[in-house]
Amino acid sequence: MTELYYKPSPDETLQSVLEIFDTIIGVILFAGIVGSIADLVANANKMKTRLQQRMDGLKQFMSYRNLHTEFQRRVVEYFEYEMSKRENMTETEIRGYLPPNLYVQVNKYVQWIILTKSPLFKNCEVPFLKDVVAYLELRDFGPNEVLCFRGELNREMFVIADGHVKIVDHNNTILRTFHEGDVIEDRSLIWFENNRYQNRKNYNVISVGYSQVYILLRDDLLRVLSDYPQCRATVVSQAELLQREADELSDDEATVEMSGFDGSTLEERLLAVRNVLAALENTVNVNFKKFRGIRFLQKTSTGFKYRLTALERFCLDSNSSP
């Protein structure tokens, strides 16, 4: 193509055919190169264009709702941060596309070493750690956004995936700053009756700039521990040791893990309710058998109504008797 006009003119038919064929091949290759460059430029700006369209839509929405300028500024800054990362897919989208087992295998390369470094999970079984990793949930936090407030119940632990997080006391004094790979509040997932702070947080956890944090909920941890009794004993022992080293346990009372409704999972609470209902049903049946002069009928609608009427009469007689 570049030497098309610098070559001597063909004198024979074969030379003319070869020149035409060479020119056609050059044009096709040149068009392919130009098209590839155009596709590269378009793909490079695709993510930015999509985020820009979302930002324009949000600006229109915020203007329509008359939101405060502070909220508008935070939204714009967050989208600028997302555009600067240039990520085609988020962690949540990747988790939705991958099968659970495959996601655990991929994700454990990021969080496996961190969990093994946590003193709370020291000497725990490998299957237990794999099940815990499956419950880690990634969340994004903006500058000065509070992950948890002072006085809240200890219901989650945090694993820093990206960014920095600081803990601040009630006087806004920075007690410590955590970086990528650090674990926060792992020991507080296990509750004890003699905890000085009643199993509540004694400080605020605040994000420094933009950060990504993996969160493990206490209910999820207890759900996994219910399947590993040996690991549960190990984790409870480690939590007691860590809280005692942090001077969070009172020496005046015995250290007892909370096992009531406040310290149990949803499944354990439902099981306790079922046991209460079973005991109540047993009590009703025992009292019903004390009735005299009642002929027990078959399990029909009429028999059920008859027994219900007799039960009401028995309760009324019991309340009226001195």
Automatic annotation (TrEMBL):
UniProt signal peptide: none
Assigned keywords, A-Z: Ion channel, Ion transport, Ligand-gated ion channel, Membrane, Transmembrane, Transmembrane helix, Transport
Pfam families associated with the record: cNMP_binding
Residues passing through the membrane, by range: 20-42
Residues annotated as domain Cyclic nucleotide-binding: 120-225
One of the record's GO cellular component terms: plasma membrane
Keyword Isomerase: no
Highest taxon in the source lineage: Eukaryota
InterPro entries assigned: CNG_cation_channel, cNMP-bd_dom, cNMP-bd_dom_sf, RmlC-like_jellyroll
Gene Ontology MF term list: cGMP binding; intracellularly cAMP-activated cation channel activity; intracellularly cGMP-activated cation channel activity; protein-containing complex binding
SUPFAM superfamilies attached to this UniProt entry: cAMP-binding domain-like
Protein name according to UniProt: Cyclic nucleotide-binding domain protein
